[in-house]
């Protein structure tokens, strides 16, 4: 085969070489390296380490911080899934109705999606620490006089609120587009037959929204499992590790305790969970392909 024929046949690969090399260097190699270090006691400060086998994974089973992080991550994930689906559908239905200024309201509800998660968390941190206590003192509401971020339950609720406030923006758009894809003839026929709003929702709107619900479910699931930056800026994992997510726990062990080997073990567990979720996402998406 001449050089000209070779180039004519394989020239397309030239556009893939650079991104493939970059992905191998900055993703696959660090991933394999991290998996290897999860079986060591590497501190991340020197090149010296000892191979400890599965000892890091044994310690995970008795690590109170890890179990607490698992619990908070599950609570956060479930709250995001339920909140984004329920609130998203309710608000989308309201925005789909014939109301004045609906274009303004649609832009208003989508606005949080374009903001930085860190910016949102830092703003709400000031609100929870200074704004709400000041309002509580002025109105004589004792339950507001203390910052929510200072108590374990309050910090969990505040974290869920902030992530949900920003996370529900995209589901609203997805559900709104799903509602607008419903043929108007079907809705009009249902109204002529005497169907009320509740019957129209369960029999007509909900079936059309199932693909969007599946997508929002996976988005919320991944957002909860990988939560880091907003929690880091809002609570830092406190108080008493009550809002430490798995991602934040990896950060703490790696960069605060210099236990890089142990942190890699937690990261690998999180990677496996996300991998399983991704496989489920693909299977669920195929079910709704037309």
UniProtKB/TrEMBL annotation:
The name this protein goes by in its record: Sugar ABC transporter permease
Q: One Pfam family, short name please?
A: BPD_transp_1
Q: Which family does it belong to?
A: Belongs to the binding-protein-dependent transport system permease family.
CDD domains associated with the record: TM_PBP2 (cd06261)
- Top-level division of the source organism's lineage: Bacteria
Residue ranges annotated as transmembrane are 12-32, 69-92, 104-124, 155-176, 208-228, 260-280
Keyword Transmembrane on entry:
yes
Q: Where is it found, in Gene Ontology cellular component terms?
A: plasma membrane
Q: Name one GO biological process term.
A: transmembrane transport
Subcellular location per UniProt equals: Cell membrane
Instruction: Alphabetically list the UniProt keywords.
Output: Cell membrane, Membrane, Transmembrane, Transmembrane helix, Transport
Q: Does the keyword Transmembrane apply?
A: yes
Q: Which parts of the sequence belong to the ABC transmembrane type-1 domain?
A: 70-281
Q: Which organism is it from?
A: Streptococcus ratti
SUPFAM superfamilies, sorted: MetI-like
What is the protein's membrane topology class?
Multi-pass membrane protein
């Amino acid at each position: 085969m001449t050089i000209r024929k070779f180039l004519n046949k394989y020239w397309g690969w030239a556009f893939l070489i650079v991104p493939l090399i970059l992905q191998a260097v900055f993703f696959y190699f660090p991933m394999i390296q991290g998996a290897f270090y999860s079986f060591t006691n590497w501190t991340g400060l020197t090149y010296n380490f000892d191979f400890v086998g599965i000892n890091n994974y044994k310690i995970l089973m008795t690590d109170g911080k890890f179990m607490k992080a698992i619990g908070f991550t599950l609570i956060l994930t479930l709250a995001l899934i339920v909140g984004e689906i329920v609130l998203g559908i309710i608000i989308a239905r309201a925005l789909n109705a014939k109301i004045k200024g609906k274009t303004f309201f649609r832009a208003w509800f989508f606005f949080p999606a374009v903001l930085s998660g860190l910016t949102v968390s830092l703003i709400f941190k000031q609100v929870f620490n200074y704004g709400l206590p000041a309002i509580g003192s002025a109105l004589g509401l004792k339950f507001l006089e203390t910052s929510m971020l200072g108590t374990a339950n309050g910090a969990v609720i505040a974290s869920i609120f902030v992530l949900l406030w920003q996370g529900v923006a995209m589901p609203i758009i997805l559900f709104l587009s799903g509602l607008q894809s419903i043929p108007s003839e079907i809705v009009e026929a249902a109204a002529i037959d005497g169907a009320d709003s509740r019957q129209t929702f369960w029999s007509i709107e909900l079936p059309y929204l199932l693909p969007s619900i599946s997508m929002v479910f996976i988005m919320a699931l991944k957002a909860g499992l990988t939560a880091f930056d907003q929690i880091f800026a809002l609570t830092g994992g406190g108080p008493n590790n009550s809002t430490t997510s798995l991602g934040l726990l990896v950060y703490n062990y790696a960069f605060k305790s210099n236990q890089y080997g142990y942190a890699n073990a937690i990261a690998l567990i999180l990677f496996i969970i996300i991998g399983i979720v991704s496989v489920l996402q693909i299977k669920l998406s195929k079910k709704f392909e037309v």
